[in-house]
Specification:
40% of the residues lie in helices and 15% in strands. It has 33 helices and 27 strands. The strands form four sheets. It has a 17-stranded parallel sheet, sandwiched between helices. Strands 2-3-4-1-5 form a five-stranded parallel sheet, sandwiched between helices.
């Protein structure tokens, strides 16, 4: 409704107040605003609402859609027919909605107060974004029991263990704790973890397993070939596979075809369906573990661990006593406990009153089952959201299960849909970021972290919460997915927002078969690889363009989409958001210039797309994400975000400077500077001068193939400008990437400390020495450091001392030729949470692996250790891993450790006298492929017997499985 009110305001401002049209728009706006403030806003925070209210709210939403569509299609300048009749129709509908709401208020004796209508103030939680460690401790009992069963050496045949329990019990967390424990033991030659959803394509699942156990194998598009590759690779190995969330016996039949029954291998399965678990573990040596709800003590431990910050901040006396009612409602369900804790964290000082009110007035009225308690907690958390945040939350229903949602794309979609309010003329991106962080704080979405950023790059959604969102979305007709459209009778409601997951082939042709019913569609979200999607399916609607009301077009992956499919795109005159992912498109058509309302253009996943000259007509563009030079982009007066754009010439670089000089709206700038077009010192000085004076809140400079001279020029110029202006550039984010893929830097520039506000740095060096670390350690605002070096000085280590890198949270250090390089002293990197390191086994300076002081990194949550095994002995690799494990075991936070091995171990260590299960190398298959090493292969009779035994256990010979899997 806010979007319609804004448009009515603009219409009124651009017309003569004495005109009839101006009076009509003013009256319509007044009626809509009264409906919003007097009824909609006051009902939004109620936890218990009558079905009549849901129906009324849905009718109001449809009315708002119709008003907005009419305004967009009939601007005042194009009005031919007298609009009085249309305005009278809208006003009558608003009056009818008011009457229905009034009857509801009278019926339930509800007296709305000003407090009810007060919007919830959303602020960025200072604790966010923070990567939280899994609370594995509450599952120690079941975890130890299952680990003992899985590591039983008496069983040499394959063993399948199924963990069965209802959704939200923590099956995945338990399975991951087991997976992590077994990863650190020398028991299996290869491991893989894969999530299986209700609609996840089998081809994707099998390719996922193959890519983990043998990363150098290419992806196949045929299920038969993938199964054959997996069987051939695993037939001589002892493996451990975790299959999470399997929902059908058919899915297990297909996966089982690829897993040979040999060498004491183990398979761990989680499922919410008892019969599926029993079917998967149907042999005498298999095991079905029935997972139960948490007991009172473990429920209390989990709840307190998620609210410890709240207790400290609020000095909450008697917190445990007051929280007992909430815990009773959760019924021992971990997911319910976590969401309840998130609700209390969001409410903070109001939480005590919430606890007493909820516990005494709600729980005392009814004994909730665990599932009912979880649903009630979710309803309470949803009711506590503001209206804009509710829309953002419901919008998550367009994404499929087990899907990682990119934060940047999500916020841009929220803005394009009109969900983000500008608070005091605040940059809308910050508003979207606040909403995203608030949903994380409430534990309604799960953040996803990488080593590319200290903040989450995206999020995932728990299956139970996604089902809850979709149920709300169906009730309110908020979104529609192709899966829902294909699974039942066509809905009576008008479809406004539509998404399809083309990773599932049964959804691929939905657009062509249902185009008549989608004529009022405003948003199309096309997700994931199209697989065998026929080009005419997309081309059909692109050529005909029946969707004249389209505002949002998101084509994530459409490899079969070609240039001619976009001909006529200029007909989508209402389009505000366009995202083109990986596709066969190389040139955008000239009629792109007709999209005068386009605000977001995202081509960041598409390389080498030529932009038309008509791009300069898109004067309303606010967000542009490219990976190429685009001179016309710099002439957009409304530009707020320009990301990933290559300034490939002196002229384009000069236009960037001009944009910075003129623009009052630009907030985020991402530039790629190449060695082929290094700016002169004068150009650099001018650019930096405008940057320091600008209102930029985020600056990213990617200096591709920069050498020492170009890097020194950049740093020196920055130092000159800041010294002369006496002013420091203080953005929220300042990122510098010096990509030495063409040539590595010889050293760190000694005056790099002049970049005092640098927050993110990626740099590649030839040799890293202590002096370089001293310079980098003086960057007191540095949050992320990605450092690669070919080598370190022989027999020397750089010491990271107390006071260095005070704000660093993410550190990735890759050293290609040395175990040495770093030693951490007490107090070094006091806030470090994620560490990625490469250890080269064969270049240690004595027989004992040195103590590198990892135990002093007291805030570590995750450690990724890559062991370079090249020409090393098995015993040496094991000793290296044991050293790392021993040092990490001294840290109180108990960080999660991930190992990865690379390179080739010595041939002498792989002889016929060596047990295969003691060789833990991800690249065993490469030895055979490249002929550098050899491994023992079982005799034909033994291999034949192994396959016969496996055929008895699986349905490998059943042709119907392959046919269904292909479908």
């Amino acid at each position: 409704m806010n979007s319609v009110l804004d448009k009515l305001t603009k219409l009124n401002n651009h017309s003569n107040p004495a005109d009839k049209f101006s009076m009509l728009t003013a009256n319509l706006k007044e009626d809509l605003l009264g409906l919003k403030e007097n009824f909609c806003d006051k009902l939004t925070g109620q936890q218990a609402k009558h079905k009549q209210v849901d129906v009324c709210m849905k009718q109001v939403r449809e009315l708002v859609f119709k008003i907005e569509d009419w305004i967009d299609q009939n601007p005042e300048s194009n009005l031919v027919v007298d609009p009085t009749q249309k305005f009278d129709y809208f006003k009558a509908k608003i009056h009818g909605a008011r009457e229905r709401f009034t009857r509801y208020f009278d019926l339930h004796k509800l007296v709305p107060t000003e407090t009810d209508a007060a919007p919830i103030k959303i602020t960025i939680n200072p604790r966010l974004p923070v990567e939280e460690k899994y609370c594995f401790g509450i599952f120690d009992g079941p975890s130890n029991e299952l680990v003992k069963y899985l590591t039983d050496e008496k069983e040499e045949m394959r063993k399948v263990v199924s963990v069965v329990g209802r959704e939200g019990l923590g099956k995945t967390t338990l399975a991951l704790s087991i997976y992590s424990k077994l990863q650190h033991r020398d028991l299996f030659q290869c491991q893989a973890f894969v999530s299986v959803g209700q609609r996840t394509p089998m081809m994707k699942i099998l390719n996922n397993i193959l890519s983990q156990i043998n990363p150098r194998r290419r992806i196949f598009q045929d299920v038969r070939r993938i199964i054959t590759q997996l069987r051939e690779y695993l037939c001589t190995k002892r493996y451990f596979i975790l299959v999470d969330g399997i929902q059908s016996t058919w899915a297990w039949k297909v996966i089982n075809c690829a897993l040979p029954n040999n060498h004491g291998s183990r398979v761990l399965i989680t499922t919410s369906i008892v019969d599926v678990g029993r079917y998967c573990s149907s042999y005498p040596n298999d095991f079905v573990y029935q997972m139960e709800v948490l007991n009172k003590e473990n429920s209390r431990i989990l709840f307190l661990s998620k609210t410890v910050t709240l207790q400290k901040e609020e000095k909450w006396a008697g917190f445990e006593e007051d929280s007992c009612y909430m815990l009773k409602m959760c019924g021992g369900m971990p997911l319910a406990i976590i969401v309840a804790a998130g609700l209390l964290l969001a409410r903070k000082s109001e939480a005590l009153a919430e606890l007493k009110m909820v516990g005494e007035s709600i729980y005392s009225l009814k004994e909730y089952s665990p599932s009912e308690g979880l649903t009630k907690i979710l309803q309470m958390s949803y009711a506590d959201l503001s209206l804009p945040m509710k829309s953002c939350f419901l919008y998550l229903s367009v994404f499929p299960e087990n899907y990682t949602i990119n934060k940047h794309c999500l916020i841009l979609l929220w803005e394009a849909e009109g969900f983000l309010e500008r608070i005091d003329k605040e940059w809308s991106w910050l508003t979207g970021k606040r909403y995203f962080n608030e949903l994380i704080s409430r534990r309604l979405i799960q953040p996803v972290f990488t080593f590319e950023d200290d903040e989450p790059m995206g999020c995932t959604i728990h299956g139970v919460i996604l089902d809850f969102i979709r149920s709300l979305s169906r009730e309110e007709n908020f979104t529609m997915t192709a899966a829902e459209l294909n699974s039942g009778p066509f809905p009576c409601d008008t479809i406004r927002r539509f998404s399809l997951d083309c990773g599932n082939e049964d959804e691929a042709d939905t657009l062509s078969t249902s185009s008549v019913h989608l004529s009022s569609m405003r948003s199309l979200i096309h997700l994931r690889a199209a697989g065998k999607l026929d080009p005419p399916v997309i081309g059909g609607f692109m050529d005909i363009f029946p969707f004249k009301l389209m505002r949002v077009l998101h084509l994530e992956v459409a490899s079969n989409l070609q240039n001619h499919h976009l001909h006529g795109i200029g007909g989508l005159v209402l389009l505000r958001y366009l995202m083109l992912g990986v596709s066969g498109i190389t040139r955008l058509p000239q009629d792109m210039g007709e999209l005068e309302r386009l605000e977001t253009l995202d081509l960041s996943s598409s390389q080498h797309i030529t932009l038309p000259a008509s791009i300069v007509k898109l004067q309303k563009l606010t967000h542009v994400r490219l990976i190429q030079d685009a001179a016309g982009i710099w002439e957009m007066p409304e530009l707020e975000v320009a990301s990933g754009i290559c300034a490939g010439s002196s002229s384009s670089f000069a236009k960037v400077v001009e944009l910075l000089r003129k623009s009052q709206r630009l907030r985020m700038l991402g530039l790629t500077l190449t060695s082929a077009s290094i700016p002169t010192e004068i150009d650099l000085l001018s650019f930096i001068d405008e940057v320091v004076k600008s209102k930029l809140q985020s600056l990213s400079l990617n200096c591709a193939c920069y050498g020492d001279d170009a890097t020194t020029l950049l740093v020196d110029s920055w130092e000159k400008v800041t010294a002369s202006l006496g002013k420091i550039f203080e953005p929220q984010r300042f990122q510098l990437s010096i990509d030495g893929s063409c040539q590595y830097l010889v050293r760190v520039p000694p005056n790099m400390g002049s970049l005092a506000t640098l927050t993110h740095l990626s740099i590649r060096l030839d040799v890293i020495e202590s002096e370089g670390f001293l310079v980098l350690g003086s960057l007191t605002n540095l949050i992320l450091l990605n450092l690669s070096a070919i080598d370190c000085p022989e027999r020397r280590r750089s010491v990271i001392r107390k006071g260095m890198f005070p704000c660093l949270k993410v550190f990735s250090f890759r050293n290609e030729h040395s175990w040495m390089g770093l030693e951490f002293k007490g107090g070094a990197m006091p806030q470090l949470q994620r560490l990625e390191r490469t250890f080269v086994v064969r270049t240690r300076w004595n027989q004992e692996y040195p103590d590198i002081g990892i135990e002093h990194l007291t805030c570590l949550i995750k450690v990724y250790a890559t062991i370079n095994c090249n020409r090393a002995k098995v015993s040496e690799v094991e000793a290296a891993e044991a050293t790392i494990i021993a040092q990490l075991s001294k840290i109180a936070t108990e960080p999660v450790l991930y190992f990865r091995r690379s390179g080739y171990m010595l041939q002498s260590q792989v002889s016929e006298g060596t047990s295969l299960r003691h060789i833990k190398d991800d690249d065993d298959q490469i030895w055979e492929d490249e002929g550098q090493h050899s491994i023992p292969v079982p005799s034909k009779s033994k291999l034949s017997q192994t396959r016969k035994d496996d055929d008895k256990h699986s349905v490998f010979s059943k042709k119907v499985v392959f046919q269904n899997a292909q479908k």
